[in-house]
From TrEMBL:
The keyword Acetylation does not apply. Gene3D superfamilies: alpha/beta hydrolase. Residues 1-38, 75-244 form the Poly-beta-hydroxybutyrate polymerase N-terminal domain. It comes from Billgrantia ethanolica. Keywords: Acyltransferase, Transferase. This is Polyhydroxyalkanoic acid synthase. Residues 539-565 are annotated as: Disordered. Transmembrane segments: none annotated. It comes from the Bacteria. InterPro entries: AB_hydrolase_fold (IPR029058), PHA/PHB_synthase (IPR051321), PhaC_N (IPR010941), PHBC_N (IPR022211). The keyword Acyltransferase applies.
Length: 565
């Protein structure tokens, strides 16, 4: 009865536990009540802010071109337009920023409050304030007011039509407006290849060579099953797969099956065994080479790291190198996503997944949107519904709307063992009943992180230096976020990256020091990675056949699993 009740409640609360939030806010309030010094400090700050605002109001009334009494944060672009600098909107947004700053002080540095609880209270309070930002109000946003006056309110009519259209598509499970122009196998995921192996969980795609000779060691890419694989094979100009093939690499890609409620008992071990391990067996048989460059993206990188550690423990030396893209193996500082990970929250999600057998893609997408609500929620509401505009769809946005599901058992194990208990970094994660540790991996590592990653923050990814004991760790920090920073093809404007050389014999550098001393380079990190892969390959040979007698081609790429709803 409890499970069923909480499962139904979870659908109304977007999967966020009210019990967990209530307990954290109660803890904050009790510690604040028991901190009279903090209360006096907040009272003093309130008085000072009120005085500053009063002085600003006088300067504005005097018409002297008053400077703002508080500036938005660098990443806050809500009030950057010239219209916000005019009366009365300048007073409105300045008052809001002062209020927001006061609440930040009220939820920070409370004596006795745990850092985890402080982060949650601070984050949720910021989300509530962002909800009531004047930029989101049709009568307090000067751009919306001006557009409404100029169009006679047509922007609101069109915006309402956009809202109804988006709502109808959401409830019927249809993709967002414009996504129909992007079709897998037509203008997405079009790099030629064959599905050469299939089991219950994966299809293995082998891509056709475009060069007369290829590097002897093939490349296996393990994407995350939280996403469709073709983020790495978008349009031909944005395809990491095509880039590698054109440089003379034999590329294999795992395409994960989208699980249903019947797959609720699939666990992490099933994903390791039926995923990278089964793929390695097929690749070695097809190519005749017993060395493979392993590449893992996001959750796929974590799984491949687990597999690599187990292989190293068991004496399996088939990995020539290991590349991880936006991947964490230590989850103690996993960014704001950790705000949703606690015993109460995990138990709440388990009840919801138990009821339906999986975690739905829309439920996962909602959590990621909350992390960047100003960019992904409120700015869209203003642009699409209040101003009546439409942001043009692109390939990356269409891919992002192609959602997947996660089995109940696997997601529960992932949250508990990796996020909640941090078993992999602590040496407690078990494969075949025995612990595996990252320190056992001896293959050269190429680790890529991104500067504005909200899913795998780069300083968390950087912790590989504290865990790996291989002779070679090459670390790359590239501009962009979790997805756009990885899909960073040569010629993409504004791309930059930093890349370190192996530091095995030198003292450990903390991430801040590493950032200061590592020079920034213009352009994409892809060519640097290709050169690294080439340097860790043995020779160039004629391309292997597409499949083999043991693994005959089954169908053309991109296969059938990626097309299944």
């Amino acid at each position: 009865m409890d499970r069923a009740f909480k499962a139904n409640l979870a659908r109304l609360t977007a999967g966020i536990t009210p019990a967990g939030l209530a307990s954290v806010y109660f803890e904050w309030l009790v510690h604040l009540v028991l901190s009279p010094g903090k209360q006096l400090e907040l009272g003093e700050k309130y008085t000072r802010k009120l005085t500053r605002f009063g002085q600003y109001l006088n300067r504005v009334a005097a018409g002297s071109g008053a400077a703002a009494c508080i500036e938005p944060l660098e990443q806050d672009l809500r009030f950057s337009g010239e219209e916000w600098q005019r009366w009365p909107y300048n007073l409105i947004y300045q008052s809001f920023l002062l209020t927001q700053q006061w609440w930040h002080n009220a939820t920070s540095e409370i004596d006795g409050l745990s850092p985890e609880s402080e982060r949650v209270v601070n984050f949720i309070t910021r989300q509530i304030l962002d909800r009531y930002s004047p930029s989101n109000s049709p009568w307090l946003n000067p751009e919306v007011v001006a557009t409404t006056m100029a169009t006679g309110g047509q922007n609101l009519v069109v915006g309402w039509q956009h809202f109804i259209e988006d709502w109808e598509r959401a409830v019927s499970g249809k993709p967002p407006v414009g996504a129909e122009a992007f079709r897998v196998g037509k203008n997405l995921a079009v790099t030629p290849g064959k599905v050469v192996y299939r089991n219950h969980l994966i299809e293995l795609i082998q891509y056709a060579p475009t060069t007369k000779r290829v590097y002897a060691e093939p490349v296996l890419i393990v994407p995350a099953w939280i996403m469709k694989f073709y983020i790495l094979d978008l349009s031909p100009s944005q395809s990491l797969v095509k880039y590698l093939v054109d440089q003379g690499h034999t590329v294999f890609m795992i395409s994960w099956r989208n699980p249903s409620s019947e797959d609720h008992d699939l666990g992490m071990e099933d994903y390791r065994r039926l995923g990278p391990m089964a793929a390695l067996d097929a690749i070695c048989a097809i190519t005749g080479n017993h060395k493979v460059h392993g590449v893992g993206y996001c959750l796929g990188g974590t799984l491949l790291s687990i597999a690599a550690a187990a292989m190293a423990r068991d004496g399996d030396e088939r990995l020539a190198s290991l590349t991880t893209l936006a991947t964490q193996v230590d989850f103690t500082e996993a960014g704001e996503l950790m705000l949703f990970i606690g015993e109460s929250q995990v138990s709440y999600l388990e009840n919801m997944m138990w009821d339906q057998g999986y975690l739905d893609g829309y439920q996962m997408a909602g959590a990621f949107q909350i992390l960047r609500s100003n960019d992904l929620i409120w700015s869209r509401i203003v642009h699409d519904y209040l101003l009546g505009g439409r942001q043009p769809m692109n390939a990356l946005m269409a891919w992002n709307a192609d959602l997947t599901r996660m089995p109940y058992r696997m997601h529960s194990e992932y949250l508990r063992q990796l996020f909640l208990n941090n078993d992999l970094a602590n040496g407690h994660y078990r494969v075949d009943g025995r612990p595996v540790v990252i320190q056992d991996i001896r293959a050269p590592l190429f680790v890529v992180s991104t500067t504005t990653d909200h899913v795998a923050p780069w300083k968390s990814v950087y912790k590989i230096h504290l865990l790996a004991d291989t002779d070679e760790v090459t670390f790359v920090l590239t501009s962009g976020g979790h997805n756009a920073g990885i899909v960073s093809e040569p010629g993409h404007p504004g791309r930059r990256f930093r890349m370190s050389v192996p530091q095995h014999e030198k003292a450990y550098l903390d991430p801040e020091t590493w950032l200061q001393i590592t020079p920034e380079q213009d352009g994409s990190w892809w060519p640097a990675w290709h050169q690294w892969l080439a340097a860790h390959s043995t020779e160039q040979v004629p391309p292997p056949g597409m499949g083999s007698q043991q693994y005959p081609p089954l169908t053309d790429a991109p296969g059938s699993y990626v097309l299944a709803p």
